[in-house]
Specification:
Length: 119
């Protein structure tokens, strides 16, 4: 399996759990604005090695999720700011450009140091 993207969760904002009810996690690079940082998983900004497509797998720590659709701005935002939303609702049509949609699933507990991979 070819790895398309990899980063690490450096810090977990205090209010990340506020979005779990909406089945969302927000990723942001280390330069997230202070008012947003509490709601985000802070990640290292890295380049993408290949196009991210529906059917790819996102691994978050030990859990794997199937990508169901990809917003138009996901790749650009991920490589420039590290800022995208992960939405675990199974949408096959991307509603928002900066959102990566994943299978409808419970979100596993995220820990500092967890690796996020897309392949």
């Amino acid at each position: 399996m070819q790895k398309k993207y990899e980063t690490v969760v450096n810090k977990i904002g205090e209010s990340v759990s506020a979005f779990l009810g909406d089945k969302m996690l927000i990723l942001f690079g280390e330069n997230a604005p202070a008012e947003l940082a509490d709601y985000c998983l802070s990640i290292t900004v890295n380049d993408i090695d290949n196009e991210i497509k529906a059917g790819d797998t996102l691994q978050l720590g030990e859990r794997k999720y199937t990508i169901t659709s990809v917003g138009d701005a996901v790749e650009k935002n991920l490589t420039s700011l590290g800022h995208i939303t992960l939405k675990f609702d199974g949408s096959e049509q991307p509603e928002l450009p900066g959102t990566l949609y994943l299978e409808d699933s419970e979100i596993a507990d995220v820990k500092q140091g967890d690796i996020i991979r897309i392949y």
